[in-house]
């Protein structure tokens, strides 16, 4: 008698009835070492994630042999942290490529839905004062609300003839504008920008730009690719006085936090590391995976894990200085920076 193949689960077809398919996977059956080495996180954090995402993952798996939330989380973490193509990680944990893809999609969507819960940029008086104190302890730079950078994550070329994702280095990417605090916690992560956009254009279109236009006190630190603004302090292009040199040194030591943070994110989530190959997805889905990894970074930091435990030690790329037209210069911002240098670095 013919068996209707359509009703059989793809994992059952691949492995047979004796195989431990992931809908029966038991976290208690594997060691802490196995979880940490294969999925990048300790058991306690994985269990926390399962409970955090359980409702969303159960909503998306209303099937007769639905894969459990525990298994979906493990599958997605395995993909995020290994940098392997989904088929390879699926083989490691014993599920088909189709099931692996569903797990990654489900968990990514669930994490993106949680982004506003874990990535927030508060500039009320209490939050400002805490930020000022934490950043001042780094290198003595006063008034810092956060450190800003825009990074590129390599993706496959979109199917359409869309050159907007070709960045200045000639490869396809999505741009991610990050702001983080002194501990490496992300305050803002906008991951959806085409790689061909200039950092300054991304900033001008971003939510952070709108939020800080009327900031009563404090500023971000940005590198020389950005324009000097009252709410965005940049290095002095050609320092001459000892105070200007001290200002630049403190600026560099403080701004480095955002570079270190993204290097740590790339190292933990190797699917984002261009050296391992590019994300094999559309710009939209790649942006969602990137945001999901940012949410996981903050969630792990808030759970007590070290932000920079896995940081790479690659040399920092020196940014190109922004060429500003005279009419684009902000004289009030220049005066504010001069006062800052005189008061705190002389």
From TrEMBL:
Cofactor(s) of this protein: a divalent metal cation
ATP-binding found in the keyword field: no
Chief subcellular location: cytoplasm
Subcellular location: Cytoplasm; Nucleus
A Pfam short name: DDE_Tnp_4
DDE Tnp4 domain span: 148-298
Cellular component terms per the entry's GO annotation: cytoplasm; nucleus
Keywords from the UniProt entry: Cytoplasm, Hydrolase, Metal-binding, Nuclease, Nucleus
Molecular function GO labels: hydrolase activity; metal ion binding; nuclease activity
Function: Transposase-derived protein that may have nuclease activity. Does not have transposase activity.
Protein family: Belongs to the HARBI1 family.
Protein name: Putative nuclease HARBI1
Taxon lineage: Eukaryota, Metazoa, Chordata, Craniata, Vertebrata
């Amino acid at each position: 008698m013919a068996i209707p193949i359509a009703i059989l689960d793809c994992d059952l077809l691949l492995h047979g009835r004796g195989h431990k398919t992931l809908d029966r996977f038991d976290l208690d059956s594997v060691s802490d070492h196995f979880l940490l080495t294969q999925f990048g996180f300790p058991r306690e954090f994985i269990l926390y994630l399962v409970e955090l995402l359980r409702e969303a993952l159960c909503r998306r798996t209303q099937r007769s042999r639905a894969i459990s939330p525990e298994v979906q989380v493990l599958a997605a973490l395995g993909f995020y942290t290994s940098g392997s193509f989904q088929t390879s990680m699926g083989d490691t944990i014993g599920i088909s490529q189709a099931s692996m893809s569903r797990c990654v999609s489900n968990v990514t969507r669930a994490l993106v839905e949680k982004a506003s819960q874990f990535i927030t940029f508060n500039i009320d008086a209490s939050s400002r004062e805490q930020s000022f104190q934490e950043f001042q302890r780094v290198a003595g730079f006063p008034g810092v609300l956060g450190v800003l950078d825009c990074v590129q994550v390599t993706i496959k070329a979109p199917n359409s003839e869309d050159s907007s994702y070709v960045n200045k280095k000639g490869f396809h990417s999505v741009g991610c504008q990050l702001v983080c605090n002194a501990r490496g916690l992300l305050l803002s992560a906008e991951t959806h920008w085409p790689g061909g956009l200039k950092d300054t254009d991304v900033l001008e279109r971003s939510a952070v730009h709108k939020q800080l236009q009327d900031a009563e006190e404090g500023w971000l630190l940005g590198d020389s690719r950005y324009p000097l603004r009252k709410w965005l302090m940049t290095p002095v292009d050609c320092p001459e006085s000892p105070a200007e040199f001290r200002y630049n040194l403190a600026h560099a030591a403080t701004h480095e936090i955002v570079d270190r943070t993204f290097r740590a994110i790339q190292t933990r989530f190797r699917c984002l590391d261009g050296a391992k190959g590019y994300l094999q997805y559309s710009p939209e889905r790649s942006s969602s995976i990137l945001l999901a990894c940012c949410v996981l970074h903050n969630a792990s930091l808030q759970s007590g894990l070290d932000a920079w435990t896995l940081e790479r030690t690659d040399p920092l790329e020196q940014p190109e200085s922004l060429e500003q037209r005279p009419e684009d210069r902000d004289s009030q911002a220049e005066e504010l920076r001069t006062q800052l240098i005189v008061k705190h670095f002389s």
